[in-house]
Amino acid sequence: MALLVFQSAYPQDSRNLPPSGADEKTPSKSEYFSWISNTNEGSTEAQSLIFLDFFKWLHDTYGLQLDIYAFDAGNIDGSLYYGSMKSDRFKQNFPENFKNVSRFAASMGTKLGMWGGPDGFGDTPETASERTETIVSLFRDYNFGLLKLDGVCGPLRPEKYGEFEAMMRQVRHYAPDMILLNHRLQLGSGERYATTFLLGGAETYIDVFMTNRQTAPHHRAAALSRELPPNLTRLTEDHGVCLSSCLDYWDDDLILQAFNRNLILAPQIYGNPWLLRDDEFPYLAYIFNLHRKYRKILVDGIILPESRYGMNAVSRGDAATRFITLRNLSWETKKYKIRLDNEIGLTAKGKINICILHPYYETLKPQKYASEVEIEVLPFRSALVKLSTEKDDDAEIRTAAVKRDKSFIPVPRHVADLEPCPVPEDASSIYYATCYAADNNALELRSLFRSGETKIPQVKKAREAFFNQQSFIGREVWDKYLFDGDNSTSFSIDFRWGDRRVDGKSAFYLDLGAVTTLDQLTFRFPDIYSLTLSAGLGSAITAFISDDLLHWKETKLCPDANLNELSAVLAEGASFRYLRINTAPKRIAEIIGYRDGQAVERSKWHASNLFREMRPVTKAWKTEFTLDKINNGDYLCVAIDGKHGVEGAYAGFKIDDLYVGSPDRAPSFASNTWEYTYSQADGNYTYYLPLSKEMEGKKIESFVLGFHNDMEISPRIWITAYP
């Protein structure tokens, strides 16, 4: 039964398209897909409407046009199973089927998409017919325009090739321009209906699947170094730009995805874009809108000579207008001379108008045809340059970008090199400073704190819809759950993807936020097995407390009769800020402090459970310096070039003899991740230290501590800022 009737977004052209729904000259479609806004549990109608309303706000406020909103795994099909829209599970999540979400999406010109597997036809004509009807109905009745088929569900059985092909013929009848993404599958005779293959097999979840292999002032150097598709083919998919973790410099990443590779899906994003800062949403719309205006001419691209333009530089456009994408993956600014002639595909004669569109906006003096123009590309940034014989008419689109003046774009500046030194006597305090400054929360929580509070209702609701979903809470990946007064929530070491701790060991670190006097400290556990990593059942646990990270006192956490609480009774009260347990418990439900019989306020408390206890330091490096001027947003980068082993080198600081740690590092510090596991690397770490005005003129001692004998590293310090 057809509930809704939708027309193709391109009814005039789509009937002439090939069976794959697109060719190399088909303009890109912008897409968001919902992977890691939920995982294999799938989404719900209520959550999806909130996320769609976020894009409706972008549409109504900034004119951002999203062509496709795609549901990822777990809605119909899931990992290793095929589902149905008749199942109780689906009906509970989508009581009105896709009727309400498709109507809402259509109100802003957006089609839907679906993730699934290639088979599901069962073993009888009846089950095959039911599967075919399920998929066809998405496109006939509910305004779908994309189908992503993934080998996670399993392969397409060869004996089902014919049924798959017949199903796709029906789908193409209702949606001739449908995009069919093929992820790692053999589709037999149905292969002709597939639009894309997956470029390099890479997902782009930063510091989960895509991690820096060189030092850099941010986490996205690996993303900025991605290869071009073979022969600039556009009928492939690069998995888009993940907006969920490590968000700084997301825009450089998206510029390359949209204007450099410019695949059939572009701009393409996924994850949790509502975690961006409020002032970043206009720029997100700027990139989408600029791409949409020129998408018809962006289909034609040429690779530029690496000797002149650097790695993977591309020119796209027509005879009169070209868009050049450049990149710089070094700590120093680079300059490239662009030839204004056929080398970049520019053949129309006349004055060439030159405009830098990213990472800042600048109009340069027009130049003659066949002359050259020099373009600076900032360290670890991408650049987009427009060259045209036609008059610049991008003022309306550019409104969101005009605040990005070149003079306000920071450039890394070298501060000092660290030199080998004797191992400091207080090396453990230097190490602990970073363990307490950082965290082991899900990467999305680090993004939330990075961006701060939002004043936008649609953004606030989307964030709440993500963090308040039961599947997120049930992962137990937020230390907040230790201090929320709810014994049903816990903070746990994540073993879902195996034991990723270094040598199978980690300690527990608790920071009270300030020196606090307590009579008793109580740990509550969800079950009697939660202590098994740190002590036998019924055993006391040794803990250490300190107020300065230098001097430590031993105390005992003793179990109650039911073995679900541990308490330290602190005689006559004890004043401390830091507590550590050298072997972390597996799960903890609640930590409560008492003074004079009353529970104390815990809003500044935080904890971690994946950092190692202190190990013997075999090598050390040090430098000292002062900073006469510190600007708002400045931070130090301790770049440790070379091999040092997994978690084999740690940076720390002493500022006027106070121990200060780095709250962030690339690759990211160990995380109890929301989806899959965190990435590990054995070299080229970069530690980041935010600076404040209070640090001006003070002696800063910077250390790198090494835990292996065979390390060959060169630590350097740079200062920069996020614009």
Structure write-up:
With 723 residues, the chain is an alpha+beta fold. The chain folds into 4 domains: 263 residues, Glycosidases (TIM Barrel, Alpha-Beta Barrel); 110 residues, Golgi alpha-mannosidase II (Immunoglobulin-like); 130 residues, Jelly Rolls (Sandwich); 130 residues, Jelly Rolls (Sandwich). The chain contains 15 helices and 36 strands. The strands form 7 sheets. It has a 9-stranded parallel sheet. Strands 21, 22, 23, 24, 26, 27 and 28 form a 7-stranded antiparallel sheet that branches. Strand 1, helix 2 and strand 2 form a beta-alpha-beta unit. Helix 5 runs parallel beside helix 6. The chain is globular and about 85 Å long. About 1% of the residues have low confidence.
Concise synopsis of the structure shown:
With 723 residues, the chain is an alpha+beta fold. It has 15 helices and 36 strands.
> What structural category characterises the helix and strand content?
alpha+beta
What is the overall shape? Answer: globular
> What is the total number of structural domains?
4
Strand content: 25-35%
Helix count from the secondary structure assignment: 15
Separation, N- and C-terminal Cα atoms: 53 Å
Descriptive tags:
723 residues; Immunoglobulin-like; seven-stranded antiparallel beta sheet; 20% helix
Task: Note the topology.
Blueprint: H1 11-14, E1 29-33, H2 45-62, E2 68-71, H3 88-93, H4 99-106, E3 111-116, H5 125-141, E4 144-150, H6 161-174, E5 179-183, E6 196-198, H7 221-224, E7 236-237, E8 241-243, H8 250-261, E9 265-271, H9 281-294, E10 301-303, H10 306-309, E11 314-317, E12 321-328, E13 334-339, E14 352-358, E15 362-367, E16 372-377, E17 381-388, H11 395-398, E18 413-417, E19 419-421, H12 427-437, H13 443-451, H14 457-467, H15 470-475, E20 491-492, E21 508-524, E22 541-546, E23 553-559, E24 565-581, E25 587-588, E26 590-595, E27 598-599, E28 606-608, E29 619-625, E30 634-643, E31 649-655, E32 658-661, E33 664-666, E34 683-690, E35 700-706, E36 712-721
Parallel strand pairs: 1-2, 1-9, 2-3, 3-4, 4-5, 5-6, 6-7, 8-9
Antiparallel strand pairs: 10-11, 11-12, 12-17, 13-16, 14-15, 14-17, 18-36, 19-29, 20-25, 21-24, 21-26, 21-28, 22-23, 22-24, 23-24, 26-27, 29-35, 30-34, 30-36, 31-32, 31-35, 33-34
Helix pairs in contact: 2-4, 2-14, 5-6, 8-9
